[in-house]
Structures are given as C-alpha cells and as structure tokens.
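Sample A.
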Amino acid sequence: MSARDSILAAVRANRPQGKHPLPDLPAFPLDDGGDRTGFFLNNLRAMGGDGVREGEVADLLAVRFPEATVIASAVPEHPGNRDLTHVTHPRDLADVDVAIVRARFGIAETGSVLLVDDALIVNAVAYLAQHLIVLLDPADILLTLQDAYRRPEVQWHHYASLHTGPSATADIEGVLIHGAQGVRSLTVLFRPSDTPISYPSASRPAQ
C-alpha cells in the first residue's frame, strides 16, 4: 500500500459517523443597476481584464494580437493552429501566444469567469498562454459569488477555476506586473453558446 493509500484509508476510518450537512449558504443582495453585463464588465476591467460585447474571434485576434503565431483553441468558433487534444504534457503549451476557451459562467460581482476541465481540454492552457480570450454567453452571468456556489459545475467537475482578470503581482517595489505567474491579458468576448450544457440534478458521487 502506498503512502497516499495509507493516508486516505486512515482518513476514511476516522471519519465521523452520521450525516453532517453543510450550513446554508446565505444570499446577499446586490444591485447591478439594471445592467448586469455592464456591471460585470466594469468589475472585470477594475481587475485588469477587458471585455468586448460583440464581434468575431478572428477579428479580435487580428486587432489585439496581430503578431500572435501560435493559437490554441478549445472552442468551435475558431480553429486555432495548436490542437489541444494532441497535447501530451502541459509544457508543450509554453509557446502558445493566445488561448481561446469558453467559460461556463461569469460573476458580475467580481468580473470573474469559471473555467472547467472539459472546456479547457488541457487545464494548463489557461495559465501558460501569453494571452487568454474567454467566450462568455451573456445569459450565463450570475450576480454574486453565492449564486456561483449554487451552480452544479462546482460539484460536477474535477477541476474548476475562477479567473478574475490576468495574472498580476505588485509585491516588487510596488510596481504592478501582469503575467507574473500566468496570462498577461484576459479578454472576455460575449458570445452566446450554441451547445447548452446540462447537469444531472443529483450530486456527483464522491471519488
């Protein structure tokens, strides 16, 4: 038995008996001013990201990233030229200039987007690319973080990550640097999804 198996076996053996439900998640009122997409965009930009209300992926690439040569796409809206389904190791994505992915939903309160494993194909692409374009259906913008925690994606995916703007740090002499540990820019393009995602009503079994 490996050390990992021994630790997990000990945890299971000493798990408290009985049902221990999680506390109720409170709801906090928040006024979006009647324009949820605008509220989302304002908070996204406050965190260093940017948003585009309409347009084509190809046009966005041509205008904002004209010198990009390696495009990794995880969406059918644009083919890209790096096939993520054939990536055997995350380090193979180190030369990606722009990655194009689709978010499951956005959060107006923070300007965040939720990226999940099957939508990314390779989780690391959301960190190793120089720039990230995120497609988001405006109908999938939630108001608050509490609303997000109630969504089934939180339970049904083995990997789910909230991204709020590009990677940034201001620890070095108080200078704000984007791209320190991840993407240098994050641009959200509003684009309705042609393939709605549904989840079973029951919770995903524990692994």
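Sample B, a different protein:
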Amino acid sequence: MRYKYETYEFGDIYNYASASTYTREKEEFHYFAAALSATYMSSLFHKPVIYNATATVDGNQDNIQRVKGFVTANIVLKRTANTTITIGALAMLDPSAIIPITLLFTYNHKFQDSKWDIDFILPQRLLFRRQLLENGRISLGTELNSESFYLNLNTSNLKGIYELNQLELKSGITYEYRITPQIIGFLKAGVNNILSTRVTERGERTSNYIYDHKEDAQGYFRFGISYNPF
C-alpha cells in the first residue's frame, strides 16, 4: 500500500501577450496505490532462476485510474559468501512507462577484510556502503527513481484525466540507523537531476506527450523511518 501527497506553490506568472502579472492558487495532489506480487523460483542450465510478477492499481482522490504491472526474470550466475551476480530482464505492462523494457544486472560484493561493500543494480542504483558505528550504515552513490501522479484538467484546451511521469537521478549520501531490531531510521541528502518530465493522456505512451519541461539540478533532503515486523 502507498499514499503520496504533493503540493506546489507558484511565484508570480508574467503573461507576455497582455503584459500583465497574475498569481495562481496552490496545487495539491493525492496519489494512492496498492500492489500484489508473486515470486516463483526454478532452475535453468543448473542455475537458480527467480521470476516475479507484480500488479498495481492506482489512482487519486477522485477515482481508481489505472491497472498496470511488470514482470521480471533473473538468473543467478554466481553466489558465494562475498559475491552475488545475477542477470535478467524487466518488462513493464504499462504503455506510459518511460522505459518499457530493460536489461537487469546485479552485482553485490563485500570486500575481503573490509567494512565496505558494493551494491550495483542496472539500471536502478550504484551504491558503496559501509558499516558505521555498531548500529549504523552509510551509503554513497546514485539511484534512478520514477514518480507519477494524475491531473484532472478542465480547461479550454485540455479536458479529462492526464498523467505526469517523471524520471530522476538522485546522487548523494544516505545514513541508516537501526533504532531497534525492527525499526530503522534514515537520512538522505544530495543532488537530484530530472531526466524527463512528461504529461500524457491517461494510459498513453510517453512519446505521445502533450507537455514536457526541463529542470535544473536541485538539492534534496529526505528523512524517514521503516518498521519490519519480521
């Protein structure tokens, strides 16, 4: 289950046609999603293979908007006490996905006689991690992230439900601290590079966008807490 709330405030907007300045009210967006995932393990060429299928239903405060999902298959090429390597593929069952099909490659390695390890998942992330103090861990690297929400528009040019999809690359530092065996807090800070932001009609391919824009790199800061009952 996931709930996301976003709010945007606008500065003064200058209209070149009328040579006038006007203001715009604050925009608020609510996003809801629920997902069901199934995993199956088998073997291929005497190597372990992991299959996964995930279906997601999402929407906004007005209604359920879409059903989408993805499937993955990964074969474990190597697994030792210090190193795990897998290769596979991911297919998005969603025409509006910015990257519909992608190769998956993972490499996790703990360096010998060291507190450092590397966690590489193509194309999702590259992290160098190290235990810090008894209950903490620090990570340095880059993570690929996507965000979306729905827009209910009713203007002279656009009427209906539209979807904003954004692809971003977050680079920086993360500190995690185990408060209890089940509760972990984290702090993140760094630079966020927006790779793509496009608005399409609901369910349309991103190549058929009605609007896109560019953003400069921006600093970001996040903090949070997670609870694992198991």
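Observation for Sample B: The chain has no helices and 15 strands.
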